[in-house]
Every structure is written in structure tokens, then in C-alpha cells.
């Protein structure tokens, strides 16, 4: 199956990745190859079959609404690439 | 020499004070220091922590206290498992500076059982691969032949146990990432039933498939490790509330009357003749031991791989959306606005295979394609599950090779992603159906490269899986062979 350069660029935009022209070419080829490989599934008659999302039948797991200690703020913020006044900081979003 | 022993050998020696825990830790680090330049299994070593733990545990033992079922045993964990105040990189540039503020449940359970976590092992980036070669850090080699890959994605965890650089280790298995490297490195690798082991603190790849399990030198050790990590955890909503048995008790050495199914039709294509020969010999051995061998059909199993290459990337593209350069992980130096931070951090932080899978997952979930890909994959997944249910009405376990081939050379399969994916053809159906699977050593090819035998069990029937593996292992010599490195 063929995946066009336009499609690859559109997918990259959705996935928030920037690709060079060579990468667009490469991914078009790779994704096309994989898409062709998974097309094998079209031979299967799936009429009336319910899809499985999960191997275990478990739905809506709830826990009691109890107050518990959370993580230490400073420990969590240690991994933030940039922070200010106990918060994570980012570039200005509103002009 | 203590690094060469198993958990069950060491636990008695430690308990009987034939050896101190420090001496065991010394031997393991000596071995790591000697072999790491060749094997490159570790991303991070916890030497200081290990010696501190050894001292604490020894003091407890000397005081007459119980130090746990893994008391004083040096183990390693894959670098996608969070350990408090320790680097957890997933072998990605994206998390190269991430120091986890908490420990995952398996880490806590290992520590409670008295294990000493000596280090974090190398892996394919975000567990995406079958060779460990997509790691951003280093190239882990196969201790049986350092020109070849250890398998993946838990390659570091398999290689370090095979080379006696840890007594046992943990890996994670999404499509074969424990069993395939176990097969390539001649160790025992167990993927438990989906829901048996908590994944809280395991960095997510494909959430409906991921499961944590042990690498060990023999089957008894596998049962001991499973005893330490299995069980319900309220922090993981997919964790199942079941009574966890003592798995070691299942090892009675007998397969008499046990029904073993062989999916002859499914495994006949693309199977390397030397692997087939070793597999056929293993089946003969099981018959000799009194097992009843039956042919079974798994008509939909051949679709498991295409199903996997829709479901796994779809879930991955969603799970990996969290890496945006904001809260933690890599942030680009090159940006003018918020949108640039997202795109440039992701573009610079992720490697090629990870980007390929994110792209593929985004594509199959994108508007207009959902029904054709993701929904259909879920429907075929149902049929694959039903196939196994039918087979297990007649047999107790299913046997098949772990991988169609033995380990390959670096770079040999990297040009064509689909060719690399085919190495997982026999392991992926197990994850799709959420079943337990194990790989045990069953011989070597003419190049002296290891071959693995895989057993698949019924849901939550790890006992039968371990029982049959143990009986096979104890009546063969393959698990005793060590690499000459």
C-alpha cells in the first residue's frame, strides 16, 4: 500500500514530530511496507465479532475516596526542565 | 564464584552463613566490572546502594530475623522500571536525565523480599525492538557470541543473567520482549498472565499488552521470582484480585498424563530447520516423560503479528504523547514558542524506531482509518483469544518454539522493519490473548547459538507452566551450559 508524502507530513503534524525531506521519504516507504503487511487482516471475516480492547474482563475499577499523602512537590519538580516559584515554566502562550 | 549460583543455591548458603551477603555482592560486582566492557548490559549501576543494603540485610540475618525469600540476592531490573532516586531512562535520550521520584510496585516488592537491585539494564528504546540495538546508550551483546544481538527488548536483563552479572533480573514483555531474549541467551524467561504482576511504575509502551516477568538461570528460580512479584495492587487498575499460590510448590518434576498441544500448522512456515530439530527433540523428550502430545489448530494465530502492529503502535502513540518537553525529560534548546518545544523536544528526544511506531500508531488512529485498522484489529484479537480458549478445552499447555531463528548479527535485520518484526511471530499471540508464556533453553544450533522452547498456559495457570518447564529442564542438560566469555 502506498502512503503519500502529504499523508506522512500530515501524520507527523498530528504526532508533533518534524521531519526532514529525507525522513518523509523514508517513513513513506516504511509505513507503506507495514501498512501492506497489516492488510492481511482484510482476509478475515469479522462480521458480528465484538472487538477486544483488553485481555482481562475488568471494567470500571473504583477506589474509596480517601485522603492520602501525595508526592512531595519539590521531588516532583526536580525533573522539570524549567521552573519558577514552585511551578513548571513555559514560554509565553498568550500574546 | 558465587555469581555463578542460582537463587535457590545462594539462599541456603546465605541462611546457613556459609557466605556473607557482602561476599556475594562482591563477586557479582567483580563479574560486572570484568564483563561490562564486552557485554554492555547495564545503563546504571547501584554499587553504593547495593553495599548498604548488603550490610543492613546481613545485620538482620545475624540478629535472627527473616530477610525474605530473596534475602541478599543481587538482581537487576530493566531500565523502564521506576526506582526511587535512581535514573530511569528507558534507554532513550528523552528520559536520559529522569530521576524517578518513586519506586514502582515490583521494585518495592523485590526490596521487601530482600533482593539487592544492583543495576538497571539496557533495552530497546521504550521497549520497541527485538534486538536491544535501538537503545540510545549502548550496544548490549549476546554473551554466547558478542558479534550478535541478545534479543530484545529486554536484552540487557537477559544478557546479564546469561553472563552471571546478576543472579536474576526483571524484564517486560509486550510482544515477546522477555521470551525472545531468554531464548537467544539460553536463560529462562517468564511472561506472566496479563494482570498478575502490577505495572505501577513501569513506563508504559502498549498498555493492553505489557507485562513484567523474571529472567533466571533455571525454572525453580523463575518460580521464586514470581512468588516475590505477583499479586494484586490497587495502584494498577488492570491488576487482578486473585489468590497467589506458592509457585515453587508446583515443581513436582512430573508431566505424566499432562496434555500438551502442538500448533503444527501455525509453526511450519519460516521455521529454521535447526530450531525445528531441537523443538522436535524436546517434544520427544516430553513424550518419553509421560506427557500426552496432541496436534491442535490455532487458525487465527497467523494474524496475531499484523494485529500487534496495529494495536501496539496505536497504544504507544497515545502513551508517548506525554513526552512534550514540559514536565520532565528532554527539552530542546531550540524554540521560540510552545509549539516548537513540543515538536523539537520530541523530534530530538526520540530515536528512529520510536518515531516510526508513533507515526504508525497516529496513522491507524487518524480520522477515517480507525474502523479499517484499530477496530478490525480488536475484532481479530477476539478471534485469536477464542482460538486459544478452544485449544485449552483439550490440552493443559501448548508447546512451540520461542523464536523461528537463533540470534542474528548486529545490523543484519535493521534495513527492513517487517523482517525484524517476524522474529516475534511465535511470541506475540500470547500477549494478544493475555496468556502466560515461558521460554526455557532446549539446545544449540551448529554455531553453538541457543534455542528456546516456549510453553503457553491457561490464564493464571502459571503453576502448570512452571511444572512442565521444570520437568523438562530437570530431565535435560541444556540449562547447565554457560557461555564461554
Characterize the structure shown.
The complex is a heterodimer of chains A (95) and B (485). Chain A is mainly alpha-helical. In chain A, a hairpin with a 2-residue loop joins strand 1 and strand 2. The two termini of chain A are 44 Å apart. In chain B, helix 2 runs antiparallel to helix 3. The longest helix of chain B is centred in the C-terminal third of the chain and has 22 residues. Chain B has one domain: Amidase signature (AS) enzymes, CATH 3.90.1300.10. In chain B, strands 1-3-2-4-6-5-10-11-9-7-8 form an eleven-stranded mixed beta sheet, with helices on both faces. The model of chain B has no long low-confidence stretch (mean pLDDT 96). Helix content of chain B is 38%, strand content 12%. At the A-B interface, helix 1 and helix 2 of A face helix 10, helix 11, helix 12, helix 13 and helix 14 of B.
Q: Helicity range of the residues of chain A?
A: 25-40%
Gap between N and C termini of chain A: 44 Å
Shape of chain B: globular
Query: Approximately how much helix is present in the residues of chain B?
Result: 25-40%
Chain pair with largest interface: A-B, 50 and 66 residues
Please summarize the sheet with the most strands of chain A. Answer: 2 strands, antiparallel
Helix-strand pattern of chain A: HHHEE
Largest sheet of chain B: 11 strands, mixed
Which key phrases capture this entry?
heterodimer, A: 95 residues, mainly alpha, Histone, subunit A, 3 helices, B: 485 residues, alpha/beta, eleven-stranded mixed β-sheet, 12% strand
Put the structure in a nutshell.
The complex is a heterodimer of chains A (95) and B (485). With 95 residues, chain A is mainly α.
Q: What is the fold's blueprint, element by element?
A:
The complex is a heterodimer of chains A (95) and B (485).
Chain A: H1 5-14, H2 21-38, H3 73-77, E1 83-84, E2 87-88
Antiparallel strand pairs in A: 1-2
Helix pairs in contact in A: 1-2
Chain B: H1 7-15, H2 21-39, E1 42-45, H3 47-62, E2 74-78, H4 105-112, E3 116-121, H5 155-162, E4 168-173, H6 179-185, E5 188-191, E6 211-216, H7 219-229, E7 259-262, H8 264-267, H9 273-288, E8 292-295, H10 304-319, H11 338-349, H12 352-365, H13 371-392, E9 397-401, H14 417-421, H15 428-433, E10 437-444, E11 450-456, H16 462-474
Parallel strand pairs in B: 2-3, 2-4, 7-8, 7-9
Antiparallel strand pairs in B: 1-3, 4-6, 5-6, 5-10, 9-11, 10-11
Helix pairs in contact in B: 2-3, 7-16, 10-12, 10-13
Amino acid at each position: 500500500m502506498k502512503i503519500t508524502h502529504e499523508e506522512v507530513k500530515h501524520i507527523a503534524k498530528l504526532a508533533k514530530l518534524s521531519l526532514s525531506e529525507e525522513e518523509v521519504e523514508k517513513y513513506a516507504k516504511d509505513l507503506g511496507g507495514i501498512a501492506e503487511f497489516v492488510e492481511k487482516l482484510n482476509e478475515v471475516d469479522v462480521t458480528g465479532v465484538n472487538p477486544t480492547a483488553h485481555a482481562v474482563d475488568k471494567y470500571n475499577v473504583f477506589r474509596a475516596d480517601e485522603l492520602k499523602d501525595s508526592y512531595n512537590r519539590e521531588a516532583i519538580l526536580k525533573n522539570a526542565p524549567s521552573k519558577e516559584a514552585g511551578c513548571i515554566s513555559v514560554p509565553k502562550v498568550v500574546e | 564464584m558465587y555469581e555463578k549460583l542460582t537463587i535457590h543455591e545462594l539462599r541456603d548458603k546465605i541462611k546457613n552463613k556459609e557466605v556473607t551477603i557482602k561476599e556475594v555482592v562482591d563477586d557479582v560486582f567483580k563479574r560486572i566490572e570484568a564483563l561490562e566492557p564486552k557485554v554492555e548490559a547495564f545503563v546504571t549501576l547501584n554499587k553504593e546502594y547495593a553495599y548498604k543494603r548488603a550490610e543492613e540485610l546481613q545485620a538482620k540475618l545475624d540478629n535472627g530475623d527473616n530477610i525474605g525469600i530473596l534475602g541478599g540476592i543481587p538482581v537487576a531490573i530493566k531500565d523502564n522500571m521506576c526506582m526511587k532516586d535512581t535514573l530511569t531512562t528507558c534507554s532513550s535520550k528523552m528520559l536520559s536525565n529522569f530521576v524517578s521520584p518513586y519506586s514502582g510496585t515490583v521494585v518495592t516488592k523485590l526490596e521487601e523480599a530482600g533482593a539487592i537491585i544492583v543495576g538497571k539494564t539496557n533495552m530497546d528504546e521504550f521497549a520497541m525492538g527485538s534486538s536491544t540495538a535501538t537503545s540510545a546508550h549502548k550496544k548490549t551483546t549476546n554473551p554466547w557470541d558478542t558479534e550478535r544481538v541478545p534479543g530484545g527488548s529486554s536484552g540487557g536483563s537477559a544478557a546479564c543473567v546469561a553472563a552471571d552479572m546478576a543472579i536474576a533480573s526483571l524484564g517486560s514483555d509486550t510482544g515477546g520482549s522477555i521470551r525472545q531474549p531468554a531464548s537467544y541467551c539460553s536463560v529462562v524467561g517468564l511472561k506472566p498472565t496479563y494482570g498478575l504482576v502490577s505495572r505501577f511504575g513501569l513506563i508504559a509502551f502498549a498498555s493492553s499488552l505489557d507485562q513484567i516477568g523474571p529472567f533466571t538461570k533455571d525454572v525453580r528460580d523463575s518460580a521464586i521470582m514470581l512468588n516475590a512479584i505477583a499479586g494484586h495492587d490497587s495502584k494498577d487498575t488492570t491488576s487482578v484480585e486473585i489468590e497467589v499460590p506458592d509457585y515453587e510448590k508446583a515443581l513436582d518434576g512430573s508431566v505424566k498424563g499432562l496434555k500438551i498441544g502442538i500448533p503444527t500448522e501455525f509453526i511450519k512456515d519460516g521455521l529454521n530447520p535447526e530450531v525445528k530439530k531441537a523443538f522436535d527433540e524436546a517434544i520427544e523428550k516430553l513424550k518419553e516423560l509421560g506427557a500426552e502430545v496432541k496436534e491442535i489448530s490455532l487458525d487465527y494465530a497467523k494474524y496475531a503479528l499484523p494485529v500487534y502492529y496495529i494495536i501496539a503502535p496505536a497504544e504507544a502513540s497515545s502513551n508517548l504523547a506525554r513526552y512534550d518537553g514540559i514536565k520532565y525529560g528532554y527539552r530542546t534548546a531550540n524554540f521560540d514558542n510552545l509549539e516548537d518545544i513540543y515538536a523539537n523536544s520530541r523530534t530530538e528526544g526520540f530515536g528512529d524506531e520510536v518515531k516510526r511506531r508513533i507515526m504508525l500508531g497516529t496513522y491507524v488512529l487518524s480520522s477515517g482509518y480507525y474502523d479499517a485498522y484499530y477496530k478490525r484489529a480488536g475484532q481479530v484479537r477476539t478471534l485469536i483469544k477464542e482460538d486459544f480458549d478452544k485449544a485449552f478445552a483439550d490440552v493443559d499447555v501448548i508447546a512451540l518454539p520461542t523464536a523461528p531463528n537463533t540470534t542474528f548479527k548486529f545490523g543484519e535485520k535493521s534495513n527492513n522493519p517487517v523482517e525484524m518484526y517476524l522474529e516475534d511471530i511465535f511470541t506475540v499471540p500470547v500477549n494478544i490473548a493475555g496468556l502466560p508464556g515461558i521460554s526455557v533453553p532446549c539446545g544449540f544450533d551448529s554455531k553453538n547459538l541457543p534455542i528456546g522452547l516456549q510453553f503457553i498456559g491457561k490464564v493464571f495457570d502459571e503453576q502448570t507452566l512452571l511444572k512442565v518447564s521444570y520437568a523438562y529442564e530437570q530431565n535435560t542438560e541444556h540449562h547447565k551450559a554457560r557461555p564461554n566469555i
